[in-house]
Write a structure and sequence with these properties.
3 copies of one chain form a homotrimer. Chain A is built from 3 helices and 8 strands. With 142 residues, chain A is of the alpha+beta class. Chain A is elongated. The interface between A and B is medium-sized, with 34 and 31 residues.
Chain lengths: 142, 142, 142
């Protein structure tokens, strides 16, 4: 069984945002799969997806603080600077964190750890909504 | 053909550990697949999975040394500090390295390069065993 | 429907290189899939794969400049040094960027964003061609 849907994630401020429910609410078809994989793919090069701690918001704030230091803006050697000082670092952050997730499905649910959630990592100062492709593949519950 | 199993990886010290055989020994079903994909997903936010050099143990030691410098503990700006100085950096390392692998299966074996092996990246000072979900999908050998 | 092929990517200089067309030209079978996933897996530990900006070559140059600073050569604490100063950092870069991609297929094409392309990230000073396994899985167009 294959199912695919292109969905929009609401525009967010620069930073790391928990979007597990926003995604799951748009793919109720997942509940019919007994064993499978959900692929989530973000169609952008200045935002990314990762899985991390879903409870304490300071983790997400520390992610923003850390990545801003690890991938600084305005480095003298950057050449791709015409779209703003946040643009080049956005591309780098997006490749470090990645643009797709592959999560096991078990008995109609994502088989995440109890503390895991899906983050939208918004690296631009000003972004509109973001498009992700959700692809479900698995065997149907009998 | 779908097959899924939740397995435990033995508790390890903080560092990078080769676990290819420990995983493969627990999913003999892989041998029946002629073409497919194995997804390995770790259900934690302070440990991660990656693929790298499987022969020289100093590579794994250099990984631990490097990531401890690239993601230092006790930075003044960290807010998520109540679970110990190793906890916040664990979350960051886990998102940089990733929580899942997707490896091609060919003729009943993982189609890894000759020097590739699966690493469990244990980022906590003190951890118990770690749970991973292994999902196999492919066509059966005739 | 499953299809798998091991292909060679031409040898490249150290740096980041757009290889979307070089890969797609070797898997015309993709055109027959209405919904699916393409997995691309590189069988090496000193080169990697990522998805990023496909238009401006300075983005790829900034990637090389950035990762050379983020993962420097000749650090005093490196132990794995006998294959050259570029070798240890190659392994680290490869795990930060990753060795596999999972891209949705829609109506016979990769469902990439308009600015997204596939990069071969060559981390060695001198490399020969690189082997990747392409695995297609999906449902056939009717």
């Amino acid at each position: 069984m294959w199912f695919q849907k292109e969905i929009r994630l609401n525009a967010r401020n620069r930073g790391f945002h928990l979007v597990t429910d926003e995604i799951l609410n748009q793919v109720p078809e997942l509940r019919k799969i007994s064993i499978g994989i959900m692929n989530v793919f973000i169609k952008h090069t200045s935002a990314s997806l990762t899985i991390n701690e879903n409870a304490d918001p300071t983790v997400r704030q520390d992610f923003e603080s850390y990545f801003n230091r690890a991938v600084p803006e305005n480095e003298h050697y950057y050449q791709h600077i015409f779209e703003g000082s946040d643009d080049g670092p956005s591309h780098l952050k997006s490749s470090i964190l990645g643009c797709s997730l592959n999560i096991p499905i078990t008995n109609g649910k994502l088989n995440l750890g109890i503390w895991q959630g899906i983050y939208l990592c918004e690296h631009r100062n000003s972004a509109s909504n973001r498009t992700v492709v959700v692809t479900l593949n698995g065997q149907l519950s009998s």
